[in-house]
């Protein structure tokens, strides 16, 4: 009879005993004694290619393997991964390892659902003789597609002031993060100072001024390493 009672008590208490998952959860709440029980078996990243991260950061991530599980270090690396990626949010999960007292760390990178809108102004230039030069070209990016368009007024680059609009499109992932394509279209109308038009009138062999200028420029870019475009 006593043996039966003992068995019943053990059965009732068994669910409350701390197992690996319970201990790991306690470790994530900050109990250092629990964390020391678990070694990191592997670290992986989903949602992106690891080649998009800097070599130093990749080395730090893999440096977790074989070390004791440290929730603060894992969280700090998630923040650093997110800082290096554009338009991504980064979270992480901790899973049971294949071996006893081991865990797997999985970082998950997801493209932010809200498209980004960038209305930052390019530098505004002023010259006492030429006046102001600048542009208002807002940009919009969503799911590897980048769009920009706006107005330009510039007297700083050429002899004439040109005023018009600029449109640009880029696809920033053509099968891989290392290849991008883009196209830009410009339409400008020039304004020449009287000194220039008078000088052209005195030189008949020289072609005169133009009424408008169009430019259509397709391009292909290759990124041999992140943030370096050729």
Description of the molecule:
By secondary structure, the chain is α+β, with helices and mostly antiparallel strands. The chain has two domains: 2-111, membrane protein fhac (Ubiquitin-like (UB roll), Roll), CATH 3.10.20.310; 116-222, no CATH class. Helix content is 24%, strand content 38%. It has six helices and eleven strands. Strands 4, 5, 6, 7, 8, 9, 10 and 11 form an eight-stranded antiparallel sheet that branches. A three-stranded mixed sheet has the order 1-3-2, covered by helices on one side. The longest helix is centred in the middle third of the chain and has 14 residues, at 71-84. The protein is rod-shaped.
Task: List its salient traits.
6 helices, 230 residues, 38% strand, single chain, 2 domains, eight-stranded antiparallel beta sheet, Ubiquitin-like (UB roll), alpha+beta, 11 strands
* Whole-number mean pLDDT: 79
In the residues, how many domains can be counted? Answer: 2
Helix amount, in percent? 10-25%
Radius of gyration: 31 Å
Quantity of strands, as a count: 11
The number of helical elements comes to 6
State the shape.
Answer: rod-shaped
Tell me the series of helices and strands, N- to C-terminal: HHHEHHEEEEEEEEEHE
Assembly type of the chains comes to: single chain
Which CATH architecture of the largest domain is right?
A: Roll
End-to-end separation = 82 Å
The CATH topology of the largest domain is given as Ubiquitin-like (UB roll)
Low-confidence stretches: 5-23, 25-33
SSE blueprint:
Elements: H1 2-13, H2 20-28, H3 32-35, E1 39-46, H4 55-62, H5 71-84, E2 88-96, E3 102-111, E4 116-118, E5 125-127, E6 131-136, E7 139-142, E8 145-154, E9 161-171, E10 179-191, H6 194-201, E11 213-222
Parallel strand pairs: 1-3
Antiparallel strand pairs: 2-3, 4-7, 5-6, 6-8, 7-8, 8-9, 9-10, 10-11
């Amino acid at each position: 009879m006593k043996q039966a009672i003992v068995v019943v008590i053990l059965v009732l208490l068994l669910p409350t005993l701390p197992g690996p998952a319970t201990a790991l959860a306690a470790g994530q709440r900050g109990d250092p004694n629990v964390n020391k029980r678990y070694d990191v078996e592997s670290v992986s990243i989903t949602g992106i290619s690891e080649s998009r991260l800097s070599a130093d950061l990749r080395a730090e991530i893999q440096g977790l393997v074989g070390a004791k599980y440290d929730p603060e270090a894992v969280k700090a690396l998630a923040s650093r991964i997110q800082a290096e990626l554009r338009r991504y949010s980064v979270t992480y999960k901790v899973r049971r390892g294949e071996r006893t007292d081991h865990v797997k760390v999985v970082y998950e990178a997801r493209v932010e659902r809200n498209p980004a809108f960038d209305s930052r102004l390019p530098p505004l230039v002023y010259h006492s003789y030429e006046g102001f030069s600048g542009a208002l070209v807002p940009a919009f990016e969503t799911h590897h597609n980048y769009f920009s368009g706006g107005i330009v007024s510039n007297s700083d680059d050429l002899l004439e002031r040109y005023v018009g609009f600029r449109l640009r499109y880029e696809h920033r992932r053509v099968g891989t993060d290392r290849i991008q394509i883009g196209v830009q279209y410009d339409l400008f109308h020039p304004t020449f100072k009287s000194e220039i038009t008078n000088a052209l009138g005195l030189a008949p062999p020289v072609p005169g001024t133009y009424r408008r200028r169009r430019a259509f420029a397709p391009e292909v870019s290759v990124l041999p390493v992140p943030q370096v475009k050729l």
